[in-house]
Q: What sequence folds into this?
């Protein structure tokens, strides 16, 4: 089975791009990109999204992600996943449909985890479910506890860290406009949306 780093390297070489080209397009360092390709580090979902865009592909094409064709999700049926052997686990909350812009995941980080610093188009909002996190947005630091939230312009360099906590982890809901999910389930989601719209129209006219 081809690992994530190898997938990225093969795609980059197929496009005739250098590590410097991809680093320049994503804002990530050449050294960090090299570590990803050699499977020495696991990028955050945001970083992987930027790499996928620079390589003219999608996250789903670089690695398998759980499909979410329905509009609704249920806590006992969502499938947690990680990027390779990463320390952060994700649960997909959002679907995709024609014209959709918002994407959302719930993710769980062990205490001591620190993401890389990223910046990209769009906006982000996070809500802390459990534990305590530190968000750095440019030169500002935000300490967020359970029930706290943060909404900011994602073009500003930012990173997240899970602080020490008796639980041993932090759990956060992330929502943003960065395109994390765009794949084979879009058509199914469109059909589901059309069906829901038809049902709502019928009920309103009873």
A:
């Amino acid at each position: 089975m081809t690992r994530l780093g190898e997938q990225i390297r093969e795609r980059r070489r197929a496009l005739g791009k250098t590590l410097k080209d991809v680093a320049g397009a994503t804002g990530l360092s050449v050294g960090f990109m090299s570590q990803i390709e050699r499977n020495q580090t696991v990028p955050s979902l945001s970083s992987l999204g930027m790499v996928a865009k620079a390589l003219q592909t999608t996250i789903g094409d670089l690695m398998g992600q759980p499909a979410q064709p329905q509009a609704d999700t249920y806590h006992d049926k969502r499938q947690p996943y990680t990027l390779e052997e990463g320390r952060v686990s994700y649960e997909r909350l959002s679907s995709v449909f024609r014209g959709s812009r918002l994407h959302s995941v719930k993710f769980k980080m062990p205490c001591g985890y620190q993401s890389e610093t990223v910046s990209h188009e769009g906006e982000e909002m996070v809500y802390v479910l459990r534990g305590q996190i530190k968000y750095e947005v440019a030169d500002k630091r935000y300490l967020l506890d359970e029930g706290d939230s943060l909404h900011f312009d994602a073009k500003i360099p930012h990173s997240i860290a899970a602080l020490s906590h008796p639980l041993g982890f932090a759990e956060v809901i992330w929502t943003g406009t960065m395109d994390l999910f765009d794949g084979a389930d879009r058509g199914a989601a469109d059909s589901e949306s059309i069906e829901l719209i038809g049902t709502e129209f019928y009920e309103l006219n009873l």
